[in-house]
Design a protein that fits this description.
By secondary structure, the chain is mainly alpha-helical. The protein is built from 2 helices and 2 strands. InterPro entries: Znf_RanBP2.
């Protein structure tokens, strides 16, 4: 190693993704870069397909029942972690049905 090795990472552009990764890993000296493989994109697509092969898990999602101005329920599907409806900003009701238990009526017209 030469004397300038410890200062060699200082000239990296802080906006560069490689520099950010190096800083997060504590590799502040030296020039490191990640090597792109030919099959990276294919591996990514295969992983996504494997993860979502059964579709999205909506079993714990809840349905907003807050009334709109015209008296109809909002009826929007929300993720379990949300305490407010993303559409109408209504708070989650204690009796809000889960998607798996929700039976939309003819007026509602929604299909889950």
């Amino acid at each position: 190693m030469d004397m300038g090795f410890s200062a060699s990472g200082k000239e990296l552009d802080p906006r560069n993704p490689d520099a950010r990764i190096q800083r997060a890993l504590g590799l502040s000296c030296g020039a490191f870069s990640f090597i792109e493989r030919k099959d990276d994109e294919e591996v990514y697509k295969d992983g996504r397909q494997q993860k979502y092969k059964d579709g999205e898990d909506t079993s714990k999602d809840w349905i907003c029942l807050r009334s709109k101005a015209n008296g109809e329920p909002c009826g929007e599907r929300n993720f379990p972690r949300n305490e407010k409806c993303f559409r109408c900003s209504g708070l989650r009701q204690s009796n809000a049905p889960l998607v798996k238990d929700y039976k939309p009526n003819k007026i509602d017209g929604r299909k889950f």
